[in-house]
What we know:
Blueprint: E1 3-7, E2 11-14, E3 25-28, H1 30-46, E4 52-57, E5 60-65, E6 68-73, E7 79-83, H2 86-90, H3 93-105, H4 116-123, H5 128-146, E8 151-159, E9 165-166, H6 168-175, E10 182-190, H7 194-209, H8 213-225, H9 235-241, H10 252-263, E11 279-282, H11 283-298, E12 303-307, E13 312-317, E14 320-325, E15 329-333, E16 336-343, H12 363-376, E17 380-388, E18 400-402, E19 405-416, E20 421-422, H13 436-443, H14 454-457
Parallel strand pairs: 1-7, 2-3, 16-17, 17-19
Antiparallel strand pairs: 2-5, 4-5, 6-7, 6-11, 8-10, 9-10, 12-15, 13-14, 15-16, 18-19, 19-20
Amino acid sequence: MSGITIYEFDALVPSVPGFSETEGLRGVPPTVFNWLELQCLRTAEQGEAAWLRLTQRRGRRSVQVTSFVGVIRAPDGYQIEVLPKVGKAIGGGDKEARQLLIEMLRCLGGFRHIQTDSAKLAAARMPLLEVFIGEFLRSVEHIVKRGLRSDYTSRQGNLFALRGKLLVSQHLHQNLCRADRFFTEHDEFSTNRPENRLLHSALRCALLLSASQANQQLARELCFVFADVPLSSHFGQDFQRVRLDRGMGHYADALAWARLILEERSPLTGTGRNRAPSLLFPMEAVFEAFVAKHLAKQLAQPFTLKTQARSFSLVRHQEQNWFRLKPDLLVRELVSDKLVLDTKWKLIDSTRANGADKYGLSQADFYQLHAYGHSYLDSAGDVVLIYPKTDTFSKPLDVFNFPKATGLRLWVLPFCLRERTLVIPKDAPFAANFNRALAAAVQGRKFESPKLTESALT
């Protein structure tokens, strides 16, 4: 199965004779390009998240991926793997960018079942879709080793022997002239239960999706174990019937993967006349979840981190609150708001301060933080914009002051993806809110991560 690996915001054009690829511009088969164009038009028409957009490069029609990462799979099986752009900026290559993405995905609520130790090893030699399928197969293999769970299910049938309860009405209707038959309802203890039906169906889908010989072999072996379990005829109803009660806890991870595979929930899917599963993740949400998880560990007591606060609105109209102010992160001390933080998945350059560049910062983001500071901090305190740390943005920028709000300051700080910590300036008033040992590690001491190489994530 063929495919390519690209980065966020790379553009794709039809690969025709005479076309030469350049950085940020890649070629795909014309049939795949036509399908991608249809996806652009469909998302624009239906008002969905724009994971692709139409553009023009070198005088040719092209489609550009936006800030979504993961796997796009065309109906003919052609795969486009989209990796985080920070991998290109830091020069770590596809392998390191893929490992970083897997680490970050674990922080999303629905993907904590990704086991990074095995996924990290797999990421070195296979694309993301195969990594995900491999994780699903390993979770099912874990269930098989512990034994498939059986349950009592109610069954009706016209049997030669009386078993269970005789259904008189149906019996008279079907067996008025058959004294050797009994129409009964009885309970049968078998592996035919919703959880096993869903796993069997997901295994069949994984077998079709995977191009890895190892994954296909494992999928066939597991399908053989589920041979006596029928396929699910209605995924939605079976997921509603799932019961992870006593003795079923080890099914949780596999069923989470099965839901992802069968319902294509993460979070976009190429749909339309030709349906094709695509596992795409908005990097803004991935980065926010990653920062929230690790920043909470960096805080000192008694400070705590709150995500997606919704305490205030921008205006009030006709006794109603309009336009909720929802900062990504809020540092609190007991019931008092101390620090407002917002994450931005964008590469900025601390050397480009002059002219229109302004480091690559957005004026709209500053307006947004000013509104947060006015409402949550009463225009007295500190608000923070957090960007990923790169070679061009390795240290905090000088503080920004709002002329009309003399007590409000705005900080632009890098978050180190390698060390998983926020780089905090020593002179910042809120520096004491954070664990000093961790802060010192970020500001000076080198730390060798056992999972990610320094060349990839410094």
